[in-house]
Known about the structure:
Layout: H1 2-39, H2 41-44, H3 48-51, H4 61-68, E1 71-81, E2 84-92, E3 98-109, E4 112-117
Antiparallel strand pairs: 1-2, 2-3, 3-4
Amino acid sequence: MLDLKLCSIFVFFMFALGCGSSNDDSNQSELQALAGVISSVQEKSSHPSPAKTLFEKVPSMPELKRYAALQFEIIGSPSVSGDTAKVNVKATDQSGKDLGTAIWSLKKSANGWMLSDSPIPTL
């Protein structure tokens, strides 16, 4: 009887831990993917071709140049709901001057996360 109880407890904890870790791994993977998108904005904004992999609607060339001149990073924790996400993004210029923050929206597509709304922060 004791063996059955111990076995039941063991199975319960293994199931509970297994479910949690799989979910945590999935969440961590999503967070890493979002961070990858945000950190690649400066690099992929130098030309419309790479920008197509980043933006749902590619901004005009003058707007892309503004993105390319800045660095972006996620501040705080992203909010993910299904195939949409919102992230608080901080922008800094080449000298390291903080330009403020803005909330960016992303949508998950067959090719991964893409920016659907990404206003450049202004002070």
